[in-house]
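ok so for the tutorial part 2 we go from a plain amino acid sequence to predicted structure tokens. step 1 is just haveing the sequence, like this:
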Amino acid sequence: MEPSRFKDLNLPFRILLGPGPSMVSPRVLRALAHPPVGYLDPEILAVMADLKELLRYTFKTENEFTIPISGTGTAGMETAIANFVEPGDRVLTAVNGFFGKRLADMASRYGAQVERLERPWGEIFTPEDFDAALKGGGYRLVTLVHGETSTGTVQTRVAEIAEVVHRHGALLVLDTVASLGGVPVDVDGWDVDICYSGSQKCLSAPPGLAPFTANARAMEVFGQRQSRVTNWYLDIQGLSQYWLEPHKYHHTGPINMFYALREALRLGAEEGIEARWKRHRSVAEALWAGLENLGLPPRVPEEYRMASLTTPQLPDGIDEAAIRRRLLDDYNIEIAGGFGPLAGQIWRIGLMGFSARRENVTLLLAALGELL
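step 2 — the prediction. this is what the tokens look like for a chain of 372 residues:
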């Protein structure tokens, strides 16, 4: 082997306007570059304490069990399923896009009796949908994707849905991978039992951590499990002994990612969570207006359109993949195409975290205007 054939990395600085990852602040990159320390070093325990406090602020919760899971957003999803589903449990999964479908698949792999509450891709659910589906009771878990990355929808009336779910004796799992930090999320105000996200979207840290929170109701259900959690790595009993007192070894956490997420969350706290939501909305509205002028109206109705991810409806005959490639090659801008039943019909344009900037909207609209 010739070591010289492995060149130095010289990656371009992309303008990331897809569904994730988002662009990362220079402050977060500087934090990421700090030297690692041991996973039980007093300094890292202080960083971990900051992470828990900052995540509670961002989730709008007082839940004691609020930590980042080591892994991407899908690890947060699997933590929710692995710990709160036992073989034979009835689980209702709301499926109106790709990630609702993933939750259903995951729950079935843990032995759940999975039933799907379905809507076409691009629509959302009502509390009445859940009330009808849960009649008869006997459900352990209900899963709902708040911001569906495959379609650009954001689920409204979450608090009402949670009330229906609890009235029928189940726990509510809410996926906020594409929404936390960019769209209003209120875990305690909505009475959500289990909620998870990802570090790489509206929080604008690199991929690698999955913010996770579970309330007292969920932890009580967890404590009544009749079987051992079949996923060792994501078992919250073991994770809690590392993240909470007495801080026992569980696994070697991604120390530098702890630094990065702490700084990303600190940026969010400095801006203020409500101000951050307003910024995402304002920038998204500028994008929506510009897309309308280009003849690319957003596919999702405005009342449930996600500010952090827009899906413009493409005209017939457009070579959408070729235009995306030109955006990347000529303008250094990345956006994504649709997939599943929306393949070829939409683009997915993300304005998330550090990427949600008015200058990025102006650049993208100008580039699309030239290419179209």
